[in-house]
Structure formats: C-alpha cells, structure tokens
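Below is how a single chain appears once it has passed through the pipeline. First comes the sequence as given, then the structure the pipeline wrote out for it. We keep one example in the README because the format questions we get most often are answered faster by looking than by reading.
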Amino acid sequence: MDNQFIKLSGVAALVLAVLFPVYWILGLASWSFDEAAIIDDFLTLDGWDFLFVVIGALEIGVYLALRKFLSNQFDSAIYSILLIIMSVLVGLFHLTVVVDVLLALGPFESIQDEMMGTAITLGLVVLYLYAIVALFLAIALLARFTMLPVLMKLFAVGLLVSAVFQLTVVLAPVNVVIFPALLIILAIEFLRGEQVVEVV
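Resulting structure:
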C-alpha cells in the first residue's frame, strides 16, 4: 500500500471534515428556498460552486484511499467494488455543477428549466443510490466486525447509521454532523500509519 498516499488522504479527510459542514450549513443557510432563489443560484457562479467541486474531489480521494486501506486489510474485492461505485456516484453528484456553469455562461435560457430540473432530479437519484451502496459497504464491514481495527469498527457502525438516515430522507440532515465525524475517524486511522493484517 502507498503509505504516503494514505497519510495524505488522512489530511484530506480532516480538511473535508471541516469544509463539508461549512458548505451544507453555512452555504445553505444563506439560501432562500423559493423558486426564484433556486433559479438565481443556478444562474450564478460563486465561491460556493468552487467549494462544491473541491468537496467532491476530496471525498473521492478519501474513498480511493479507504479502498487501498481495506484492500490491504482483507483479501476481498467487495470493498473495492463498493468504494469505486461510491466514488463514481460522488463524481456524478458533484458534476451537476456543470449545469450551473452552462447556465451562467451559455445561451440556454430557452431550456434552463429543463436543465435545472434534470440536475436536481439527477442529484437526488444519485444521493439515494449512494446511500444504498454505503449501506452495503457498512454491512460488508460489519460482517467482519471482530477483525476490524477499533476505529474501523466505529466507522462501520457510523456508516450504517448514516446510510439509514440518508434513506429516510427526513433524517438525512443529521448527516451534516455524522459524516464529518466519520471523516475524522478515517483521518485518525489513516494518519496512524500502515497496519497490515491480511485476512482471507
């Protein structure tokens, strides 16, 4: 395993643990959720759009590092597959910012409603699929609960709770707190250094 990559990803996880709630709490708190405000947000490029992209890139990096970490711990492809799927879904979700760019810079006024509707629908579908895959990952980790390092046990349980909350929709906002906590757990695990415990 590339130990330096894992440690750098630990730093990335800490940064993401700060930026994630900043975006979803402070950023969304400044929004007004009426139709005019939503349209205005799509038609305007600002620092929040850049932060949205940065968060997506960091999250993908953390998942790829977790994939390496778990591949080193267990001789099983299931974790790699699930984390690759999660990375792709995160990428798709954050690529919806392309619609903001196109609407802000391009002459798409005649179809802007369709573009915004598609972006919102895609975002919601991707978030739901992400929660399902995260649930499978949590279950796969919990299946080897006794073999996991202590911090990864906490991560597995927390991920299960987070995925279930996301699927309920109503409890999804709680993940603004749970997700950064999970990132901090991963950061500590990554920064502690490589631990090789291969299990078939």
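The chain has eight helices and no strands.

See the next section for the split statistics.
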